[in-house]
Amino acid sequence: MRPASGRRLGPAALALGALALLGAACGSGAASTSSSPSSTTTTTTTTTTTLPQPVKVDGTGTAGPLGSLGLVERVPVVPVPDGAVTPPPDPPASAAAAHALQVGFHQLGAGPDLLLIMGQHGTMTWWDPALLNDLAQHYRVTIFDLPGIGYSAPDPAATSVEALADVTAGLSGALGLVHPVLLGWGLGGEVALALAERHPGLASKLVLVDTSAGGPAATPPAPAVSQLMAAPDATMIELSRLCYPPSAEAERRAFIGRIAELAPDDIVASALASQAALQSAFSADKSVAEELPTISVPALVVVGEQDEIFPEANATALVAGLRTVHVLLLPDAGYASLFQDEPRFVSAVESFTG
């Protein structure tokens, strides 16, 4: 199958036969491919009767430096053990305090829960306000900072993508999210995959944007790209040039203008080094990639064909491994495909989750 312009997806994707492609009129719905028969998974869900109380972060909200983003809050989060859907109900105060991580988050909109997971070298302020506002018309959108990033405390145990998935599952439980759709970008997409494997029954659907499943089929970026993504002195301008192809210079400048309205929260050098290390380890680890067929929830794979950070071949491997897949191919977009072609992306997400 060939898009209106640009190159074909790789041979592995073509071998699937009926690859689902969401075209420009994605509001009309999408087909799906099934690479393994459906099966019934039994999960046990424990209901937590008392949710932790979020605390407002001083200096945020309508009067603070993040006024255009809104109120940022922190909530204590206990990572969820592998195989569990929610934390045990009402853990003893001492145990909760010993394992709780303060996670910064922000919520906007109303509707079904949509949990956004940021990629490498990004904080909450990297989400394009235009995207957030459009998604908030249809969903209750939750954005947050990964451990050690922005408004979230560091977690010495969060040294792998799987550990980040357990923290994300804990955040979902702490906020009382109801079977959220997980939207992961880059590293965030890898976290979403690991969460779906480790905590079956928590997410309702996955939106995987310019990401990979790791393992032997993963295609890494050029060394210079990896170095810049991990560089503590990399500027927003430099990173944005990785996110947009040269042909989308106008879109890149518009994106910079929109996020410049927000006061960026902090990314310290140690957190960047930790993210670079766990990204490298994930790319070499085949455990998540081998378990892709066990993921029972549908996934929308979004592909920026000009992506320098997660080259297109990574999407081919995802499509080959996942059980039920929809694909949105954006031929002229890069890593920031969800921002570069934002109206089409939002339309695809609405169609996929509707």
Structural class: alpha/beta
- The CATH topology annotation reads as Rossmann fold
The CATH superfamily is known as Alpha/Beta hydrolase fold, catalytic domain
Oligomer: single chain
Short descriptors:
single chain; 354 residues; alpha/beta; Rossmann fold; 10-stranded mixed beta sheet; 13 helices; disordered N terminus
What does it look like?
With 354 residues, the protein is an alpha/beta fold. It has one domain (106-353): Alpha/Beta hydrolase fold, catalytic domain (Rossmann fold, 3-Layer(aba) Sandwich). Helices cover 33% and strands 14% of the residues. The chain is built from 13 helices and 10 strands. The chain has helices at residues 11-14, 93-99, 129-135, 161-174, 187-198, 223-230, 236-243, 249-259, 269-284, 287-290, 313-321, 337-340, 342-353, and strands spanning 33-34, 55-56, 73-77, 101-108, 113-117, 140-144, 181-185, 205-209, 299-304, 324-330. It has a 10-stranded mixed sheet, with helices on both faces. Helix 4 (161-174) packs across helix 5. The longest helix is centred in the last third of the chain and has 16 residues, at 269-284. The radius of gyration is 19 Å and the shape is globular. Residues 1-49 have low confidence and may be disordered.
